[in-house]
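User: What would this chain look like folded?
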Amino acid sequence: MLFMKSKKEEAAKKLELLYPENVRTGCKSDTKENVIRAVGQMLVDFGYVNPSYVDAMVKREETFSTFMGNELALPHGVEEAKKEVKASGIAVMVFPEGTDWGGQLVKVVVGIAGVGEEHLQILAAIAEVPWKRAAWSV
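Assistant: Here's the prediction, encoded as structure tokens.
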């Protein structure tokens, strides 16, 4: 006899914040919007967010740049899109030659989705990393 998992059991399924499959290296330069959509689609494909979250990531960028300095950008959705986040997670794209981010050179893009206020914890953890430009060339 087969049993289906209850909704409570499904909700209890915890995804890790980052999996190796969610890191792409050797990415080719593209427009900022295309890069945001690509990293957002990675979040969708792994089950962290609903597809509409990707549009919310683009909307965030239109109102406030997610460029953080040190060749790093952290695109994430607007506040209203929180309901589209199913699990906290990140996706990473590395651009060895860089990509244009509104006039700034970006080599690492980290797409972020956080349940509740977890996106703030994720942002804080990323901010604590001693980012070095030389690391992008590895």
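The beta strands are 23-24, 67-69, 72-73, 89-101, 104-113. If you want, I can go into more detail on any region.
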